[in-house]
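Fold sample X.
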Amino acid sequence: MKRPSRPKRTRLRAGAKIPRHPRLSADQRYALETTIGYKFHDEDILIHALIHPSLIDEYRGGATFSNQRMEFLGDRVLGLVVAEILINKYPKQREGFMTKQFHNLVSGQTCAEVGADLGLRDYLFMDASMRSNKNANYDRAVADAVEALIAAIYLDGGLDAAEKFIKRCWHFDILSKDPDEKDGNPKTQLSDWCGQNKAPYAAYETLQTSGPDHAPIFTVKVSVEGHGEATAKGGNKAEAERAAARALLDLLEQQ
């Protein structure tokens, strides 16, 4: 038997209780804009970049509700900026070498590391299950939000603003200085080692954060189950993770 629908007034009242989208407090917005080095003219664009798809059902949103479409755009903006940087940095190198550098720079892992440096997860709007869900390899939600944030800056301030953000915040230190040089990112090298030796992927754990707010020190442990672990420190989480990966690689090479 078909259940009778609720009166129209009741349906409207129920829908009115659902906010259009979540909001940042004034302090949160100021802190985030200070961290990323860009002040938004349109706050709604910034908010849109921070909404994870896990909230679609809760807010009765559609395809345009979450940051997925912005992530799609941000990925293309990032690719354009990075490609131009590589063309200028390596004027004599072949396409194959630059392609490898390009994929390292735009990978989900690199995006997640940039997001970790910015503390972006603290500003994301997501449901409780996603907030506690972090992939052992890299934080996919943060990586996607970084690309969405690039799109937001592009939409709000243009390509120049997006390019400045990328050049200021990206991990260009992972670029190889020599085309014959091995991949300069120890985390990638460690992942390659795990794959070659059929070992579980490396797991990273932040053990401690110390020091003043303006100069924090992160202590990170990396472990490969059944093969060993190493601990290192760095001025940000990504730096500490790379140092720990380098230390573990050195131990693995001695075995």
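Fold sample Y, listed below.
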Amino acid sequence: MGPAKTTEAAKQITYLAAALKAPRINEAASRLADQARDAGWSFEDYLAAVLEREVSARNASGAQLRIKAAGFPARKTLEDFDWNAQPTARPQLAALASGGFLLEARNVVLLGPPGTGKTHLATALGIIAAGHGHRVLFATATDWVTRLSEAHRQGRLPQELARLRRYGLIIVDEVGYLPFEQDAANLFFQLVSSRYEHASLILTSNLPFSGWGGVFGDQAVAAAMIDRIVHHADVLTLKGASYRLRGRGIDSLPSIRTTTDETSG
């Protein structure tokens, strides 16, 4: 192909890339053209290489947008987690990092005392999910109830639950830190039920499941909710003292109570 034809083809590629809103195709086509000619690539190999660059760039760009929109409190990864404190959890987390649980609408539950890395791991899995193309939302249990209560007050709770089902992953942090009143517990139950076998949840809690009745004020509601959560779920129990207290001469935090103790005389 002569210089004039090459220039004309380059102009056409520039125009077509702009029409497709894929300017990176133009850059990749130019950069790979000489390499393709020198290596004797087939037309198919060259086209595949150009399109691969565009798809990779779009995935990376889209992942960053999804991470930003998720509302994570901080960016955390599995790579920067202190596995020395939780060595037994590593194989399960490595399996979850493939993202397969999202395709199966499975849940992940992280249980353990405060400061053992539950929020870090939930965030890390959320960032991985965003990288796999899933929309993600992160909030504390209290914030989720506030959001659902507002939707209920405005008469649009069914629409809000349907909208949330379009998210591949919802993360509910800190279940159990504050007990819920009955109306709030019922709203949370509806969130869990609406996603059952449709889309994934990740929940973190400082309490074992046996303590959830006190959180939701009703053992029957708690049991029905737990049944839906764990039917298709990976449950990880983290152990040990809070990493925030290490080196401060404090071994553990006091237990968080969800029921009112009788006052002793």
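Sample Y note: The CA atoms of residues 32 and 38 lie 10 Å apart.
Also: The longest helix spans residues 43-70.
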